[in-house]
Structures are given as structure tokens and as C-alpha cells.
Amino acid sequence: MSIQRILTFLEVAESGSIIKAAKKLNLTQSAASTRIKLLEDDLRQPLFVRSASGMRLSPAGERFRPYALRMARAWQQGRQNMSQREDVKGSLSVAIQLTSWARLSHDWIGWMHANAPNYLLRVESDWSRGMIRNLADGYFDVIVTSVPTMVPGYIIEPYISEKLILVATTPDLSFANLNKGYVHVDWGPQFNEKFNLAVVMPVTPTVTVGLSDLALQIILRDGGSAYLSEHAVQEQIDRQELFVVADAPEMTVQHYLMYPKVHHNSEGIRLAVEAFRVVAERQAETVMV
Fold first, then answer.
1. Is the pLDDT assigned to residue 81 strictly greater than 80?
2. CA distance 1 to 39
């Protein structure tokens, strides 16, 4: 079974299109189609349901996908290990929920470079649902998520609690009058439910985003309001570039670490988790000061 067929299968599954997959893999459409056909012949199962709108995984394709992901990752890690310096101990792949990317990623990478320089790092931002699926499939080693799901063999560890406040570029905004210029940050289903229960009248956001940093940039440029991490906007509040909406309820989002109980690279997992804990401790100390 060719690894190139596996990689093509995963790309078609992701994009839902032979044409898009072929373009990304620098193949002709015919070559990509041939790879998929040969893989289906190997497995003696149709892996996709084909239609005029594109391609989606068949039941057999859904069952095969986790194994394909593990094979692809093993291939990538094997290639990395064969080309690594002799002092490299291994590689680590982590994912951080989009809304906490700016807060955690830079400090985590800095700690790892200082304290675990012999590890190669892969750091991505993602939505919680995709991260958990990829964690279970072995693509990620450690993730930070606000929507943990019980997965056999994995630890869910309470991590940081994010205090969210509604801030605006004008000092006189009322929570009851959010429609004009409100930018909705998708902090997750728990936040969305609390927000919908809190508002008196339905709110139509100007735009909905997954990155809190992007929401901050939008309202600073165009004016408006958004629920943002108090930690992230304190400087703008101190400079009176942003104002806390006094009658708006405070919200919190709890984040969690997820990682495997048993792993072939147990020392690497330990260091990655320790790095996240240190980042949280340092940020808590900064807030207290």
C-alpha cells in the first residue's frame, strides 16, 4: 500500500474534491484519481461517494480514515527522524484552540526552546472538535481545548480559566444596545449559550470570528465592541482606547489540556504539559502584580 495513495486519500477527504487535492499535491487530476482507484482496489472497498457536488467519505472511508492518519503521521515522523541531528530526541505536535492561540503559543514555544531544545515542534491552531479527533487519531500529542470530550486512554486536565469582558471603543455603550458594531468571538458552545441567555433582544453581529486577536483588531480599526479576554485588553483599557461596558455580564471560559496516558514519547509529553503549566502560572503571576 503506497504512502502516496494514503496522502492523496487524506487530501481528497479533507477538500472533498479530486481537483483541489490534485492541485495541492502538484498532481494531474488523472494521477490523483488513479491513486484513489488503486487504493480502493487494495482495500476492496469504495472509499468515497461521488456526486456532482464533489466527493465525501463512504462508510468504509470513514472507518479507514483514522488508520490513514496514523500511517501518514508515522511516515512524516519517520522522515523527520531519519534527517534529524544526532542530538534530537524526538518531535512533538500540539494544537491550541483558536481563541487562545495568541495568549499561549508564543510563551509555550519559548519555554520549550529554552528547556527542551532537542525536540522538534509542530504547533497548530484549530477548532476544538477537529483537535480532539486528530488527538485521538494520533496526529496531535497535546491539545488545549474548551470543549473536552472523554476519549479512552486520554487525560483531561483543567487548565486556564479565561475571564471575558465586553469592551467597546466608546465609553457610553450599553449591553442592551449591542447591535451596532458588535463583533462576536466564538469562544465555544458554553459561552454562546450564556451570551444568548443574557441578551434581552436578539443581537446580529457585524462579523463572527474565531480569533480573538482578529476581533480586537477589527474594533480598534472600525469601532465597535466584543467580548475579549481581560488579560488581552488591559493595556488598551488603561490607555482608554477601549472601555468596559459596565452593565454587561462577565463571562468565563474554562480550558483543558488533553494528552495520552501512555505514549511512546512519554518524556516529550511530560515536557509539553509542563510547559503549558508554567505558561499559565507565569501569566497568573503577571495578573496578580
1. no
2. 7
List the grid coordinates of 62: 470513514
Q: 92 with 76: CB under 8 angstroms?
A: no
C-alpha cell at 288: 496578580
Q: Record the pTM.
A: 0.70
- Label residue 82 by pLDDT band (50, 70, 90): low
Task: Return the residue matching grid coordinates 544526532.
Answer: 86
**Torsions phi, psi of 243, nearest 5?**
-130, 140
- Nearest-angstrom CA–CA distance, 171 and 75: 55
Mode of pairing for the β-strands spanning 243-244 and 207-209: unpaired
Three-state secondary structure call for residue 166:
strand
Tens-place pLDDT, residues 221-278: 999 999 999 988 999 999 999 999 999 999 999 999 999 999 888 999 999 999 999 9
Architecture of domain 3-81: Orthogonal Bundle (1.10)
The listed CATH number (3.40.1360.10, 3.90.1150.10, 3.30.365.10, 3.40.190.10) that belongs to domain 87-160+255-288: 3.40.190.10
Residue ranges of domains in the chain? 3-81, 87-160+255-288, 162-253
Whether 34 has a pLDDT exceeding 60, the answer reads yes
Contact of 183 with 242, CB cutoff 8 Å? no
Cβ atoms of 10 and 35 closer than 8 Å: no
